[in-house]
Amino acid sequence: MNSLGVHELENLRREARRLAEEAGLDPWEVTFGVVDYDQLNEVSAYDGFPLRYRHWQFGMSYDYFRKRGAYSGWWTYELVLNTHPALAYLRASNTVVETKGVMVHVYAHVDFFKNNRWFSKTNRDMIRVMENHAERIERYMNQYGVDKVESFIDKVLSVQYNIDPHAPFIKRRWQAKTNPKDEETGVQPEVGRIPVKRDYMDRYINPPKWVEERRTRAYVEMEEKKLREATELERPQKDLLQFLVKHGRLEDWQRDILAMAREESYYFVPQIQTKVMNEGWASLWESKLMSDFAGPNEFLDHADMMSKVLGGGALNPYRLGKLIWENIQERWDKGRFGREWELCKDQEKKTRWDTQAGLGIEKIFEVRRNYNDITFLDEYFTEDLFEKLNLFAYEHIPETGAYHITSRDFEDVKKKILLRHTNLGKPTIKVATGNYDNKGELLLIHEWNGIGLQWEDAKHVLRNIQAMWGRPVNLKTIALRKVRDPDPTRNRIHPERPRTAVVEEQGILLRYEGEAFRELALGPEEVADIRADDVDYHTIPEEWIG
């Protein structure tokens, strides 16, 4: 058990920060708090925040962390929040060497939070925001009932990351549209009234009851037009939550909870976008700095600690990220980049290649600043690393009902890895219009990249969206379906046997009106419109480079 006192912990913190800064890291100040095993599980369930709103999902998360530590031996050494100053939790039972490792690991995380540009738009005062959200939701629970509010939160959480991860970086230009004639005169004609040349004619041409009827009809038409204009989009948009906040048939308290969930989701987005980079970065610097920080008798204990963190498979983000960072540093230290390197076909020469460029540290800090996981993996997950990790691609084969290795090709495996990190690892669903078929219905499109939806999950989510939209909801997608082989000649040996099943792509409009689902076939043009076979993984704004 760790018996370190406050002063000893403070001395270790000062030394950890000194080592981090001397190595070139630039973290914010960090406030460390010491918690016991159960308290760490509690704050882990709350994503590190001291206070969140009441919901059963946090109880399930707590149970997961508790059982993971009890039965698998995989426990949490630390937890750090992207706030300013940063807040980090130390487990009270950590040994001295574990505390040292955790502290330098935390400082590397905070350096990443501060300096990676994908975090530059996040709210650093999120502890206060989360507390405010918890208080408001508690008031709604007291006013409308716990079950009713929690049931609505269930619906919201099913779509909480249906947002646009790049929205905070989009620069929009708004231009007000006015009528030039109105600007000239400053007078607009009165709604519902016919203009007359002589005042005495007005009571005959514009009877009060008739004018009121015309005004009412014009108001309804105007509101319908405003709804159509608001919900008919020029191009599909990814931020479903924002669309529902603006146009969903929601009560005020529901709209407020949906807006709160959206704000929280945007806070967590950069952490999801950079999981491999961030954990790899912290693991890299922990291994570097502990060579000076660990005492003579602590190296083996720290090696054992790192083996637990880096274990669990080749795609463990701690291990994969650390290997890529180390590979980048080695390549730029030895000059293994640029046109001459890329054009060299002599493998033996490439193996010995070392120009003593010494640019490794400079390069990893540049990458740390500008990249996210998609661009990081796309550019720096090399064929050499692929061979070192001995990776392969696998698929679920419907004919056998099992998973099978389908490829050991580098490009196939890399595409699979990139797809796991595309759009926060979730299907890309966009809002096409809120006035589908001119009936005020919601139309969503699934940008299909070869990975189909989980059908029952998709139906569950559509039910929740329909409840928030208040009108029918439609989803265009492509599904892989088993069908009977249409070619009878394929079974010539035993023609008496039933035809074998084949898998084909089917374009489907999945429609939910509030009671039952309907599946309608999409035409070839509609299927072509929702395909996204050529995915562009380069999401770094041009102004960030250089």
Any chance you could write out the topology, listing elements then pairs?
Layout: H1 6-22, E1 30-35, H2 37-45, H3 56-72, E2 78-81, E3 86-91, H4 96-115, H5 126-144, H6 146-157, H7 180-185, H8 202-205, H9 208-231, E4 232-237, H10 240-247, H11 252-273, H12 275-293, H13 299-310, H14 317-333, H15 339-343, H16 347-352, H17 360-370, H18 373-380, H19 383-389, E5 393-397, E6 402-407, H20 410-421, E7 429-436, E8 441-446, H21 455-469, E9 473-484, E10 501-512, E11 517-521, H22 524-530
Parallel strand pairs: 1-3, 8-9
Antiparallel strand pairs: 2-3, 4-7, 5-6, 7-8, 9-10, 10-11
Helix pairs in contact: 1-4, 1-12, 2-3, 4-12, 5-6, 5-11, 6-11, 10-11, 12-13, 12-14, 14-17, 18-20
Describe it for me?
- With 546 residues, the protein is of the alpha+beta class.
- It folds into five domains: 6-116 and 274-310, no CATH class; 127-167 and 238-271, no CATH class; 193-234; 317-419, no CATH class; 427-530, no CATH class.
- Helices cover 51% and strands 14% of the residues.
- It contains 22 helices and eleven strands.
- The strands form three sheets. Strands 4-7-8-9-10-11 form a six-stranded mixed β-sheet, with helices on both faces. Strands 1-3-2 form a three-stranded mixed β-sheet.
- A hairpin with a 4-residue loop joins strand 5 (393-397) and strand 6 (402-407).
- Helix 1 crosses helix 12 (275-293), helix 6 packs across helix 11 (252-273) and helix 12 (275-293) crosses helix 14.
- The chain is globular.
- The model is unreliable at 173-189 (pLDDT under 50).
